[in-house]
Specification:
Helix content is 56%, strand content 20%. The protein is an alpha+beta fold and 189 residues long. Among the domains are: 1-40; 70-144, Winged helix-like DNA-binding domain superfamily/Winged helix DNA-binding domain (Arc Repressor Mutant, subunit A), CATH 1.10.10.10.
Length: 189
């Protein structure tokens, strides 16, 4: 069972010590990634970044192709599916996108009949964005597409390994959320 994992920067190398069932394995790689100083290139930070980026790109490309929606259009629909009736500004903030970019995607989604803009109940200048019944009618089809892509992507991966990967990625996400919060606090006046 994995008990502890940590990366450290020492003498120009990344090193990783993993305690696995009592056996410690130490590996290191040069920061530049030019010459491997460890037996497994996959432990280099650059490899992880490249792999996770490729995975995200492939997922979005395949899903976009199968739904005829862009990644950002899908993100907007999924966000509204969780909390319908948000303003353009609220969507922009939640999705970390520029308000103008959100507006372009909303216009495209409106032309497709997938969203509608309604007057804000208290702010006459603002519009609230709502999904149309068409989205709810097609929701199951969208979930099936995701399931098909996921099933194919996870093909040949044993359940235990898959769950360990999900746990590790979740832990990395949580670590990076904490790092992001630390960075934001340091940059505040």
């Amino acid at each position: 069972m994995r008990q502890e994992s940590g990366f450290g920067k020492a003498a120009g190398y990344y090193s990783m010590a993993i305690e696995d069932a009592g056996a410690e394995v130490a590996v290191s790689a040069e920061l530049t990634g030019k010459t491997a100083r460890h037996p497994d290139e996959r432990l280099a930070p650059q490899y992880f970044v490249q792999l996770i980026t490729q995975l995200g790109d492939l997922l979005s490309t395949i899903y976009d192709r199968r739904t005829n929606l862009s990644r950002n259009q899908t993100r907007i629909i999924m966000t509204l599916y969780e909390a319908d009736g948000q303003t353009q500004t609220e969507l922009a903030n939640q999705l970390h996108m520029h308000k103008v970019s959100i507006g372009i995607h909303l216009t495209e989604l409106e032309a497709l009949g997938l969203i509608e803009r309604r007057s804000h109940p208290t702010d006459g200048r603002a519009k609230c964005i709502y999904l149309t019944p068409l989205v709810y009618e097609r929701a199951e089809s969208g979930r099936q597409r995701y399931a098909e892509i996921h099933e194919r992507g996870a093909e040949g991966i044993p359940t235990g390994l898959y769950l360990a990967m999900i746990e590790a990625i979740g832990r990395m996400r949580d670590n990076l959320i904490a790092l992001d919060e630390e960075d934001r606090k340091k940059n505040r006046p």
